[in-house]
Amino acid sequence: MVATQKGIIDKEMFKMKKNMGQVDRWIRIVLGIVLLSLVFFLSGGIRWIGLIGFIPLITGIFEYCPLYALLKISTRKTK
């Protein structure tokens, strides 16, 4: 807990809790790499669509999906 001028804030609220299982994670990483490779294999303006690959790549690396958190979904197995 942190006290501020506007009140007390719980730090746990702002932590990124892992919400992605291993299969989901590896699918995102591979998909991200494939999409990023389009930057090198396509020509013209369409090649920049490959930059969308950063989204699944980053979410896969950090094992956290903000959309899953918003919808309260988790594919991570609990122990």
Structural class: mainly alpha
From the N-terminal CA to the C-terminal CA, the straight-line distance is: 27 Å
Tally the beta strands.
2
Percent helix among the residues?
A: 40-55%
Global outline: elongated
CA-based gyration radius:
17 Å
Detail the poorly predicted runs. Answer: none
Total helical elements? 3
* Largest pleated sheet: 2 strands, antiparallel
Q: Could you tell me the strand content as a percent range?
A: 5-15%
Assembly state (oligomeric) = single chain
Spatial arrangement of strands, main beta sheet: 1-2
Mean pLDDT: 88
Question: Can you walk through the features of this model?
Answer:
Helix content is 44%, strand content 8%. It has a two-stranded antiparallel sheet. A hairpin with a 2-residue loop joins strand 1 and strand 2. The chain has helices spanning 22-41, 54-62, 66-71, and strands spanning 2-4, 7-9.
Task: Please outline what is shown here.
It contains three helices and two strands; from the N terminus they run ββααα.
Write the layout of secondary structure elements.
Layout: E1 2-4, E2 7-9, H1 22-41, H2 54-62, H3 66-71
Antiparallel strand pairs: 1-2
Helix pairs in contact: 1-2
